[in-house]
Amino acid sequence: MELLDKLAANLEALADKNLIRKRRTVETPCGPRVTVEGRELLAFCSNDYLGLAAHPAVTAALKEGTDLYGAGSGASHLISGHSRAHALLEERLAEFVGSSLVEVRALYFSTGYMANLAAITALAAGDKDTEIFSEALNHASLIDGARLARTTVKVYPHADVEALDELLGTSRAVNKIVVTDSVFSMDGNLAPLPALLALCEKHGAWLVVDDAHGFGTLGTNGSGALEHFGLRSPYLVYIGTLGKAAGVGGAFVAAHATVIETLVQRARPYIFTTAAPPALAHALLTSLDIIAGAEGRERRSHLAGLVAQWHDGLQLTGWRALPSQTAIQPVVIGANDATMAAAAALYQRGIWVGGIRPPTVPADSARLRVTLSAGHTAADVARLIDAVNEVNAEINTHMERSRDGT
Q1: Within a domain: residue 226?
Q2: In which band, very low, low, confident or very high, does the pLDDT at 68 lie, cut at 50, 70 and 90?
Q3: Which of 237, 242, 239, 274 is nearest to 256 (CA)?
Q4: Are residues 336 and 224 in the same domain?
Q5: 3-state secondary structure 193-224
Q6: Which residues partner with 332 through β-bridges?
Q7: Any idea what the CATH number is for the domain that residue 354 is in?
Q8: What is the pLDDT of residues 127-168, one digit of tens each?
Q9: Residue 300, in any domain of the structure
């Protein structure tokens, strides 16, 4: 079949560039130590930043949720799938992030991808008088949301406030939407949100913030990047993910009540999908209690200590550890083959770190994406540091010998 042959040729082309992705089957709960295809590994590749995915209180709440609400919701939210658990979670989320927003309401989604698609497309509403201004390093879901909005999209350079100011200043659109990640998932750095919000208020634009990697980890109370920067504005549309630091699943959009009602009425990813199982929403109420309480503060403090330990211990030659103060700690290597060789060498040592290649990151910037968790110990991170330093030295030596022909 010519159609299959074409697909096979495309896969071969990916393989030639060392861009084939492979899955590994995990046999144990998400955590610092996992069993993968019969082998125990120390994992530094999940987004379970606070170590809540297998927290006893959260898993007990999930079990309780199934007893209360069953396994599934049975329908979309606007038919019969909106349960009491969903309603309680949305009320709690609005309260949790409400200090940063005006007349706040929250809306729960099955995934962060769906929440981003919903927020952008509903705000744009297919209006030809809309322009979207998208950060160059935005997550794929934000990029796809802008594409699906079927309107003009302008991309501004990473963290370039002056460039965005110029784009907004020359725009004649009535409806302007600035879209950005808060914590960039492959670099670990923070967007200049205070400056971005000032621009949006100056030019009359929405600021849509995807806080997938900040919710739960940033801010004194863990309510995310807006709390971290002390921001408050009716121009803000906030998206938080609940399958990372919160440890369960789904996501939410929080904004002015009029914005949320617009999503309920217009957002196709919300209207035309079955609601997430109510038991997940019930478990998330416990996750939020942990994040906002003393235990959450202790976990964030411990995570900050691990980040400092990581930076203090690295001794790299040729590779570059990015200056992130978040749980995401990339080590840029450059070449695809060297990056995958490094990931494989760590795996052989019993340490699981993801190797990230284009198109997820720009060409020639392939990297190890180390993610730290409050579930890790200082001894775990010390073992990781030693292994990364060793692999760095080994690969550099191998490359030097290859160049010398020895």
Answers
A1: yes
A2: very high
A3: 237
A4: no
A5: HHHHHHHHHHHCEEEEEECCCCCCCCCCCCCC
A6: 320, 367
A7: 3.90.1150.10
A8: 779 999 999 999 999 999 999 999 999 999 999 999 999 999
A9: yes
Tell me the CATH number at 192: 3.40.640.10
- High-pLDDT (> 70) share of the chain, %: 99
Are 150 and 30 within one domain?
Answer: no
- Cβ atoms < 10 Å from Cβ of 265: 11
Structure tokens at 188: 């670990």
pLDDT above 80 (res 402): no
Say if residue 241 is in the same domain as residue 328.
no
Query: Amino acid identity of 55?
Result: H
Note the Cα 4 to chain centre separation in Å.
34
Name every residue whose Cβ is closer than 8 Å to that of residue 392 and which is 6 or more positions away in sequence. 315, 316, 317, 318, 319, 342
The answer to whether residues 31 and 103 belong to one domain is: no
| Domain annotation covers residue 159 | yes
Residues 278 and 144 reside in one and the same domain: yes
Domain co-membership, 122 together with 222: yes
Exposure of 325 by Cβ count < 10 A (0-12 exposed, 13-18 middle, 19+ buried)? middle
Q: Report d(CA 348, CA 45) in Å as an integer.
A: 15
Assess contact for 250 and 108: CB atoms under 8 A.
yes
**Average pLDDT in the chain:** 96
Which amino acid belongs to residue 285? L
Same domain, 134 and 276: yes
pLDDT of residue 128: 78
Tens of pLDDT, residues 314-342: 999 999 999 999 999 999 999 999 999 99
What is residue 255's predicted lDDT score, i.e. its pLDDT? 98
- The domain in which residue 92 lies consists of 56-292
